[in-house]
Amino acid sequence: MSSTATAILLSVLLAGVGLQQVAEADGTLAASCTVTWSLPSMTCATVSTKIVDQMKSWSGGECPSSCSTCCYYSITTDTSEAITGTHKVYIGSYALTQDLTFTLATPSGSEGCTVTAYSVQESFYVVKDSGQDYCNLKNIMSGSGLTRVSGVVENVAGSSCTDLAEASC
User: Minimal CA–CA distance to 142: which of 86, 58, 40, 75?
Assistant: First the structure.
């Protein structure tokens, strides 16, 4: 390899390392989404069970015919306060992985459960996602039946989700 080619390759690699450090430091470079659901008629224990059961149900590579991305979910941790895991989307033989967190809390002075869900692309260079991070969360909540519970309220803003207007879940 010529010295010019080596210099260019080294510059690209160093720029990539610099971008990754920026992305990890402030968390804003990679595509992501935060959604909150309020479920006033359900306990957090019931909500947690439904989310975990749905993620397990969609853990394999067989996606339901109605949802081509409703598969390849996995659970990393499952506590009474939070469920973490991943979701993979395959593009040919290449997998994009998103990290998922569902945080559960009982609102002070009331009953029910509030779920704050977050999905972020593991690859810092994935800055556009056509709403995939939103759909990762929405699909689990919908598939588990939690979006059809009496009194449920979803709170999501375009500024908290990359490409929300393009989401097609």
Answer: 58
